Amino acid sequence: MSSPEAVMRLAPVIPVLVIEDVAHAVPIAQALVAGGLPALEVTLRTPCALDVIRAMKQVPGAVVGAGTVLNPRELDAALEAGAEFIVSPGLTPALGKAAVEAGVPFLPGTANAGDIMLGLDLGLTHFKFFPAEASGGIPALKAIAGPFGMAKFCPTGGITLATAPDWLAVGPVLCVGGSWIVPKGEPDVSQIEANARAAAALK
Q: Are 66 and 41 spatial neighbours (Cβ–Cβ below 8 Å)?
């Protein structure tokens, strides 16, 4: 992927994945791609996350990124594993500069005007709004986005299939992140594909 916007426009929802067993990686990725959600955010919250990225990269049609990237060291590890985009819960100058220098599509977490201004200073214009519901929901995002007409967002955190359409109707929102699509535990691939189809049909 050449840009964060290209990633964000692949589908209305980017699944946020916390995968505990690398054996689940390929079946989950296949179900998500079959359901119409090709952009997959594998969070670096589990010991096997980098191996999950490597495995999912083998699934045709999957665009695999790393989430919960906290620092340049984790950025490097994710890129070495083949991550095609990077998502972070926040933004620091060190991580932002490293991502820009790497030339990888990067969605840093923002929750206020200062976060966005830091991103703009680094040349970034596409952001994760996180945690979306806990940060004040749609009214907060509208208020924060107001002064920044160039900024585009992927709200993540507390969003559901029922509330996603309201978020997607907000002008600067290109997609949302969702953890509801792949529940924790042993994967039910037919249910995951059904969840993906419902999410892909939102926009």
A: yes
Enumerate domains of the chain plus CATH numbers. Answer: 4-200 (3.20.20.70)
pLDDT tens sequence across 67-125: 999 999 999 999 999 999 999 999 999 999 999 999 999 999 999 999 999 999 999 99
CA distance 142 to 173: 10
Catalytic residue set: 41, 128
Specify whether the CB–CB gap between 16 and 178 falls below 8 A.
yes
Burial of 19 (0-12, 13-18, 19+ CB in 10 A): buried
Which residues, at least 6 apart from 95, have a Cβ–Cβ distance to it below 8 Å? 69, 70, 71, 72, 75, 88, 108
Q: How far is CA 1 from the centre of its chain?
A: 14
Q: How far apart are CA 184 and CA 28, in angstroms?
A: 11
Structure tokens at 134: 């806990």
pLDDT at 62 exceeding the cut of 90: yes
